[in-house]
């Protein structure tokens, strides 16, 4: 019976599927999540108050008038924002989630790499601590000050430098906003090889500094492969330039790799050279219901095999994630009226709509016949594409809508991926902390979703209120669980401030020592992004 | 008229094209080039004789009986090869091209990572220099000793450790031969994301140590993106282990990246974790003739756009390369009877033969109608696929068949790629050194071919004899030309021994200093692969 439901769906929708959609413009189809839809409306507590045992490092000089005078010598008035001069620096001091708030009194907004170099050289000589800041869309407090560090905003380094339409290599300033870079590329038939919710605010340089993953990693791979060159201001003010982007260059250690994911701790990225793929002209989205976790894995294997080169996203969601999204999207009908333990959203992107439609239809029919899929819906047209995507995209916001959310971004071997969510739910229930209906319990539920193809689980614990009991139930339990499965406690969000004390769950003492050695080697005065990373 | 030739070809061959080829088995279709078909049959001169100004570094201890005794304590008799004990160490002392020959008296062939660690720890303590060696198929003398360094062969670390059919992640010892790894994956529906001529001999660990590129880079990207984890024995004997391969892990600097392309200078790779894509089930090959270099670029743009996700190779060849291959393949008819200045071989690999055939046919018809292509041939069946590929694959061997060859492997911006070949030919002609017909001239011609999609040109100068005049005409001219275009003097072959003195053409003094800093940091006693790299 279920099989017939899907087959009918595809048959009916088959005609509409053949409409050509000329442009793969994700920004049109899915709302860009930026600062304005943040999860909290109150100002964040000062990080220094939240963590009273954390003390300002006395090695750092306190900002003086002579420092301001120096910066006035190299920057124009508009490029210097000072607290107490009618300027509100909250946007620079607070993170996007409003979990962390620093106390910086000075924001510098240089317009050139030379200005960045002059600033950093001076700060290094004077022992002034600096936080490099891109779009400030990070989720681990990595891009805001903790105490009185100077904020170095890259927002005004925002020009495309060069684009080669033959090779697809884009060279741009670090402060170019992702959506702008992608729009520029779209006009030229190319695509930025990475996409994520914050595309309307986040910077290309910030993406590289945090080694962002996002939605296209399954298809286009990690930034370690697609970034071809970087321009980086080192802590001593020297400029490391490998912007002569070549796809292949085997002359010595690939130095730029260290800066990809370094979170602003050993250099300030000012320019990026990146290889961009041709923009697909055809895309499809389908939404599937599955009866257990084993099916998710089986459908993934089948999708990789049969959709192969056109598979562009394979997102998975558990029942709780759809329950929470449903509470938030009241009045919007879920793709399926019945309940299922797991759901999968598959997106294809290719160069020939008819071929892609046929591949997807054959894949879906086979999956139904083999009993892998319990129900399915195939989008016809942009409205339906948007409707299906929202059941994946709304989960983060919905998770916080009952009061708050504890968020964990982890990597786990695929076979173990959902067992963490089950374990957390069992633990919270056993401790009498969780109930989806009973409003007297602090926790609504734990839910899981994420980029299945990348082994990247987003575990959200939706709460009605933050309590010490819930926190004690979750931590270090979650980190210990991830470590026991040889996973990573940060798949794509980075360490930042939030996770700096937990790295030992993912890295050995030897690796931590090697990481600290590199930090010390490049930034002996530790002026860059202090109190974070390791 | 030309247009009709191609259209007829495709129409006639269209039927055969639709035959399904079940397996993409390159090893069947293209002969694997291994040591046995080396370009030279004489034994190489001792490197120490060829470079008389190069002196053995007196810091290194000379091998003594007590050292042999130590190694006998950790290795079995079969794992120790000593010169003068009835053992011929030529295979380990000489490179594949027979350009370099070291004088090692000892080859160690450990079977476990622990044995490698014990060896390296001891050598570090005793200041014994060591050359890690994989399949010894490198082209720059990086894997053979220069003086009396101990050869540490990874050939017996040759087990697949684990494969996850859901994620496609392969974990294996460094000494697994590429072809064996790929056969293992083929049986499971997966593909090693890299292919090259030496696949029958080269090791997975060696590929990573040299950051090899090869034929699939256009489609599957660089090893910096696909290698997920490494096991590396550091110069102090510690084992760095990041084999818990996760597709995403943002917890600290990505340490493994430094070892990708480090050519055995800061650690010995003993294990590799790599992400493998599903194996395509359909493939096509076509061979095109083009009237000028601008057309090559235009056809590339069109192929990327229209073949997009199924494009798996875009190899280009100039007229001279086909002339030289024709001399070598006497009696074999070239795909085209007329002569053209440029040729392109395009390969597609996808999951649906009918779709791929149609895409390729439409692409070819369009290219003909637009006048981009002067003539074309489309392979029908495996024999024709092999026949077309041989006109690309035979070039290296053919280049040396008149007596010898000077080989350069460079990266250049696409627009400048062939101008190097033109410049070299003009220079050799102007100096009266070159003539394809006149056997009294030392040079036959310079020719260019390579992985166009990667900006990787192989410049070969086919010679009748090696002379100092020719060498003086070529070097440093070639390196200066590449530097003037901001290219790389080593795209994929690495620096090794051959290019260590030329790195300054591709890297700034600051970058070279940073590279040396890293070498010194990890290997303060410089025991690993001395006299090479930088």
UniProtKB/TrEMBL annotation, chains A, B:
Main location: mitochondrion
GO molecular function: (R)-2-hydroxyglutarate dehydrogenase activity; D-lactate dehydrogenase (cytochrome) activity; FAD binding; metal ion binding
Subcellular location(s) per record: Mitochondrion
Keywords from the named record: FAD, Flavoprotein, Metal-binding, Mitochondrion, Oxidoreductase, Transit peptide, Zinc
Domain FAD-binding PCMH-type, residue spans: 100-279
GO biological process: lactate metabolic process; malate metabolic process
Cofactor: FAD
One Gene Ontology cellular component annotation held by this UniProt entry: mitochondrion
Family of this protein: Belongs to the FAD-binding oxidoreductase/transferase type 4 family.
Main function: Catalyzes the oxidation of D-2-hydroxyglutarate (D-2-HG) to alpha-ketoglutarate. Also catalyzes the oxidation of other D-2-hydroxyacids, such as D-malate (D-MAL) and D-lactate (D-LAC). Exhibits high activities towards D-2-HG and D-MAL but a very weak activity towards D-LAC.
Protein name: D-2-hydroxyglutarate dehydrogenase, mitochondrial
């Amino acid at each position: 019976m279920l099989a017939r439901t899907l087959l009918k769906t595809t048959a009916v929708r088959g005609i509409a599927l053949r409409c050509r959609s000329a442009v793969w413009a994700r920004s049109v189809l899915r709302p860009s999540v930026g600062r304005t839809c943040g999860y909290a409306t109150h100002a964040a507590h000062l990080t220094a108050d939240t963590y009273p045992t954390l003390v300002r490092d006395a090695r750092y000089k306190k900002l003086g008038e002579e420092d301001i005078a120096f910066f006035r010598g190299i920057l124009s008035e508009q490029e210097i924002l000072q607290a107490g001069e009618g300027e509100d620096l909250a946007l620079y001091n607070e993170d996007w989630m409003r979990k962390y708030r620093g106390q910086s009194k000075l924001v510098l907004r240089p317009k050139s790499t030379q200005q960045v170099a002059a600033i950093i050289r001076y700060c290094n000589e004077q022992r002034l601590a600096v936080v490099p800041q891109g779009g400030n869309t990070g989720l681990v407090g990595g891009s805001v000050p903790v105490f009185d560090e100077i904020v170095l905003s890259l927002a005004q380094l925002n020009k495309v430098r060069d684009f080669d339409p033959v090779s697809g290599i884009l060279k741009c300033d670090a402060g170019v906003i992702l959506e702008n870079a992608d729009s520029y590329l779209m006009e030229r038939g190319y695509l930025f090889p990475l996409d994520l919710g914050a595309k309307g605010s986040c910077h290309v340089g910030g993406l590289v500094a945090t080694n962002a993953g996002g939605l296209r990693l399954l298809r286009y791979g990690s930034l370690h492969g697609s970034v071809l060159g970087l321009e980086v201001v080192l802590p001593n003010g020297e400029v490391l330039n490998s912007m002569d982007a070549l796809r292949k260059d085997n002359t010595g250690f690939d130095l730029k790799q260290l800066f990809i994911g370094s979170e602003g701790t050993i250099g300030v990225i000012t320019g990026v050279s990146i290889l961009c793929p041709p923009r697909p002209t055809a895309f499809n989205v389908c939404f599937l219901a599955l009866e257990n976790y084993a099916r998710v894995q089986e459908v993934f294997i089948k999708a990789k095999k049969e959709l192969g080169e056109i598979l562009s996203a394979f997102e998975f969601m558990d029942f709780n994630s759809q329950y929470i999204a449903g509470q938030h999207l009241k009045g919007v009908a879920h793709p399926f009226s019945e309940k299922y333990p797991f759901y999968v959203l598959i997106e294809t992107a290719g160069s020939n709509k008819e071929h892609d439609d046929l591949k997807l239809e054959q894949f879906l029919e086979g999956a139904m016949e083999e009993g892998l899929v319990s129900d399915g819906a195939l989008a016809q047209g942009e409205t339906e594409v948007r409707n299906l995507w929202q059941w994946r995209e709304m989960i983060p916001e919905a998770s916080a809508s009952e009061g708050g959310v504890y968020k964990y971004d982890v990597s786990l071997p695929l076979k173990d991926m959902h067992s963490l969510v089950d374990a957390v739910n069992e633990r919270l229930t056993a401790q009498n902390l969780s109930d989806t209906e009973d409003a007297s319990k602090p926790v609504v539920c734990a839910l899981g979703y994420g980029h299945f193809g990348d082994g990247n689980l987003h575990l959200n614990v939706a709460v009605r209120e933050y309590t010490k009991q819930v926190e004690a139930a979750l931590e270090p339990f979650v980190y210990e669980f991830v470590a026991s499965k040889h996973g990573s406690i940060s798949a794509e969000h980075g360490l930042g401030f939030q996770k700096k004390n937990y790295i030992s769950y993912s890295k050995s003492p030897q690796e931590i020592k090697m990481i600290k050695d590199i930090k010390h080697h490049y930034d002996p005065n530790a002026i860059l992004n202090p109190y974070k990373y390791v």
